[in-house]
Amino acid sequence: MPVRLRIQRFNPETDSAPQWREYTVEVEPTDRVLDALHAVKWHCDGSLAFRRSCAHGVCGSDAMMINGKNRLACKLLIKDVKQPIVVEPMRGFAVVKDLIVDQTKFFEKYRAVKPYLIAAEPPPKTERLQSPKQQERFEDTTKCILCGACTTSCPSFWANGEYVGPAAIVQAHRFLFDSRDQGAAERLPVLNEANGVWRCRTIFNCTDACPRGINVTKAIVEVQNLLVARAKDPRGSDAAQ
Amino acid sequence: MAAPPALSSAYGRPKPIGGMDLWSWYFMRVSGLALLLLALGHLVIMHLINSVDVIDYDFVARRYVGWFWRGYDLLLLVLAMIHGLNGMRVIVDDYLHQPAQRRVAAWLLHGLGTILIVLGVVAVVTFRPPVTPVGVGQ
Ligand code: FES
């Protein structure tokens, strides 16, 4: 079936401002928006630039704004979106070209929360064990694929690009609530800054945008509550259970 | 090379947890809950139990004989003012980025807040009802 797309194009070498172009391509209703973008790139205009890698909702490369909402182009079916399909780069990042955005700062904030296991004891001979219940505590935030859909759907982030953002908080949550991790003392000060978790205004755009269905707002509030608990009792146990 | 990160504590010695942003967030949660109950109580008494046309000077004077309703109104006033102003401060913090603009906004908010709170507190505290208010205890 013919599908109409309205894509925001920007070439920093020739354009002073982004501009809209329309394309009509032939795809199946059960194809994904990514297939339509491929059709444009392969058959209409080879200069169209966008990121994609796995094409199966795993790598998080192709988050973009589709019909006003941040989505993964590879997970959204043509039959589920209204035409013309309006495709824009994620908001709040500088556009490198067309749908490709500059994620340097995004990953800087990701690294700032130390998204890796920090354990005091030396590694044991076998695995570091934990109960299914302990694992459940942070299960939801392990699903993050760092696509950036949450952070770039957040009005707080649009207003202030220095805000650490939902994605980094989700990553911090994944380790803060892991019984094997003792890095809270290193992570919490970053999250407690004015540009840390306190910029969350509980807008829920992030939860709505997450292609993995992570309850992002809940994770943020859990980190906020953890900080308050830590402020009331600075000697609280290091692993946040 | 990328610009240095804005999150300073990612480097250097960890600071203790606490501070203005944390407690202001906590205050908003607690005062929000308190305000919900206080405002609902106010609404029920002033608009559901009593209709607006029976609320006059005598009605207020009768309520203000003791300190309970004064305390209630004071709490409602002070919490609502600080909650609202803190909300405004947060919005200013989000959307005004130039230091000069921020300074002006902060002065305006603090000034306005102080004037309104002082006016309200003075009205509630210094109000002297007539010695034997008409219809006490009705
Ligand atoms: S291309 Fe990998 S998540 Fe869509």
CATH fold-level name of chain B: 3 helical TM bundles of succinate and fumarate reductases
Distance between the termini of chain B: 77 Å
Task: Name the assembly state.
Answer: heterodimer
The number of E-state strands of chain A comes to: 7
Q: For the record, give the distance between the C-alpha atoms at the N and C termini of chain A, rounded to a whole number.
A: 52 Å
Give helix % range of chain A: 25-40%
Secondary structure tally: strands of chain B: 0
CATH architectural designation of chain B: Up-down Bundle
How many independent structural domains of chain B? 1
**CATH topology (fold) name of the largest domain in chain A:** Fumarate Reductase Iron-sulfur Protein, Chain B, domain 2
Brief description of this entry?
The complex is a heterodimer of chains A (241) and B (138). Chain A has 241 residues and is of the alpha+beta class.
Overall description:
The complex is a heterodimer of chains A (241) and B (138). With 241 residues, chain A is α+β, with helices and mostly antiparallel strands. Chain A folds into 2 domains: 2-101, Beta-grasp domain (Ubiquitin-like (UB roll), Roll), CATH 3.10.20; 104-232, Alpha-helical ferredoxin (Fumarate Reductase Iron-sulfur Protein, Chain B, domain 2, Orthogonal Bundle), CATH 1.10.1060. Helix content of chain A is 32%, strand content 14%. Chain A contains 8 helices and 7 strands, in the order E-E-H-E-E-E-E-E-H-H-H-H-H-H-H. Chain A has helices spanning 33-44, 104-112, 132-139, 155-159, 165-176, 184-191, 205-209, 216-232, and strands spanning 2-9, 19-26, 63-66, 69-72, 85-88, 95-97, 100-101. In chain A, the strands form 2 sheets. Chain A has a 5-stranded mixed sheet, covered by helices on one side. In chain A, strands 6-7 form a two-stranded antiparallel sheet. In chain A, helix 2 runs parallel beside helix 5 (165-176) and helix 5 crosses helix 8. Chain A is elongated, with a radius of gyration of 20 Å. In chain A, 44% of the residues are buried. The mean pLDDT of chain A is 94. In chain B, helix 1 (20-49) packs across helix 3 and helix 3 (68-95) runs antiparallel to helix 4 (99-126). Chain B contains 4 helices and no strands. Chain B has one domain: Up-down Bundle (3 helical TM bundles of succinate and fumarate reductases), CATH 1.20.1300.10. Chain B has helices spanning 20-49, 57-63, 68-95, 99-126. Residues 1-5 of chain B have low confidence and may be disordered. The longest helix of chain B has 30 residues, at 20-49. The radius of gyration of chain B is 22 Å and the shape is elongated. Chain B is mainly alpha-helical and 138 residues long. The chains are: A alpha+beta (241), B mainly alpha (138). Chain A binds chain B through residues 104-105, 108-109, 111-113, 156, 159-160, 162, 164, 185-186, 188-190, 192-196, 198-199, 201, 224, 227-228, 230-231, 234, and chain B through 2, 5-10, 14-19, 21-26, 90, 93-95, 97. Bound molecules: FE2/S2 (inorganic) cluster. FE2/S2 (inorganic) cluster (FES) binds at residues 52-55, 57-62, 72, 74 of chain A.
